[in-house]
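Let's do one together. I've listed all components of the complex below, 617 residues spread over two lines.
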Amino acid sequence: MKSKTALGLGLILFLLGLPLISLGSAQDIRVLFYLGLVAVIVGAALPPFIRFSCRIAGTWLSEQNADWRRTCNQ
Amino acid sequence: MEANVPTDLLHWLAALLPIALLLLLLVGFRWKSTEAGPVGLFAAIIISLLLFRTPLETVTVAVGKGVWDSIFILYVIWPALLLYVVADRAGAFDSLRIGITRFSKNNMFLVLAFGWVFASFLQGIAGFGVPIAVVAPLLLAIGVKPIFAVAIPLMGHAWANMFGTIAVSWLATNAVIDIAEPVRTAWETAALLWIVNIVGGLTIAWLYGRGAAIRHALPVILIISLIHGGGQFALVFWNPVVSNFIAGTTALLLLYPLSRWSRYNQPHEDMAVQAMSEESSREAAEREERTHEPVMGLSMATFPYIVLTVVTLGGLLIPPIEAALGAVEVGLPFAGVTTGYNVTREATDAYSPFAIFTHPGTFLVISSIIAWVVYRLKGYYAAWSRIKEQESIWKGVSDGAFPASVAVLSFLTMATVFDHSGQTQTLALGIAAATPPVGYAFASNFIGVLGAFMTSSNTASNVLFSGLQQSVAQLQDLPTSSIIAGQSAGGALGNAIAPANVVLGTGTTGISGQEGAVLQKTLPLSLIIAVLLGIGTIILVTT
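Okay, and this is what the predicted structure of the assembly comes out as:
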């Protein structure tokens, strides 16, 4: 996954979480509510996850994993 | 029941940790804001859950509100980038660079004109980060290095936050607290903002070329500051709402006669200029002029920004239009939540309603569309693409907007988690509890800075902290007008270091991820200004 794609996905997840949390809290629908929180958390976690994945890829997998190398260099 | 947040050292340090971590990662380790922001957010959530008796439900509502607050800023970032890319793909910035070198030969003057005077004018009419998003690429076009192109408008626009954007922060402060002496509070605030203004001008010169640049620019800085700071100070006695707009517009108009002054219409003396690119803009423009003619004149190159000014003024200053456009508001419902320390946020049917048609983002979108149509009809896109190969407008916008958006979302959700868990109150009350009256007067603006740092908004900072500042002032027998003035001036200054504002600039100048480098420039300078504000507030409370 390209880093720009990851950021775009992160942005979509953040925005997706908003109506879920709002609707879930206002209508007291717990599933929607916490699904919204999960969407935001996953969206937020993507950029640091990619950073650490790159660190790991750079350390142990750089020879084997060309995809990650491309992502990390972008 | 009153909120009863803990103010002991453990909780105070715990509340400070996410902010310290964010700054350490951004400035110390030079992490990208897209990576540091989420780590700060996670730290704030974990500390809320473990130490501030915040139920997961409260954290979730705070996160939702933070995403909603972010949309106000995203609706500036995306359209500002669109306006920039629409102009850039037509060759407007190339033409601007060539045209400006014919118009003025003094780079120091141009940097002050764009980074201070035009940025302040934009803050006066638009706000919401528009000055940074718009001015940073303009400075880049005249040859300013990207890091400086972001740092300069950050320092230049800060003073205009409190009474800018038709005094939205002043009006919000009046809405959340009962100001006993409004005139005194207004002029004391304006007096402190004058410090932010004049030191802002001096720091821009310092960033440009250290002491030699300050000596060269001092006359124009003093004149502009007299109009900006002095004009606003005088006008708040009459009408705080338009004080900043009139002062900012007068200074903008004064640029033309100042540019005819022999001191500033010729290149400045040799000095060690650090803010400009190795090959100066002038040399680059002259070289480009030899290889190709500019595709448009200076007036067409600045056309999108003229349209933006006209559209914004028309939308905000003509009452019937403003009333009609402002009637449409959108807000989302959220349930009421509380914490174990009784920090309660009531249920709302429309949280922080968003007047979409009077938002600066809409003015930017309209300006972008008009500029695109005009440039296309005149054939500039085709002409410029024959000189330089162009990527699509979507690619230009999304390359900058994706990282900026994720960073802003992280920062603002972190801010609302702070607010809903009571960590913000713990930080502010801790400062209040540990300082004697004079010390609190000194520290009052730092609380304002803290609020704006977290929320990138003078208004939000004042809404968060004005009540607290007023209570502490009354407890310590300090004049509330002076303490609110300190809060307000600090809230304005905090915009120079707010990561979400920095991201606006790095996004529009193509240096996403270098927010730490920008903060390394603005943070120490802002700290110096905050100390001066502290001294100014002490003078106000003791006289």
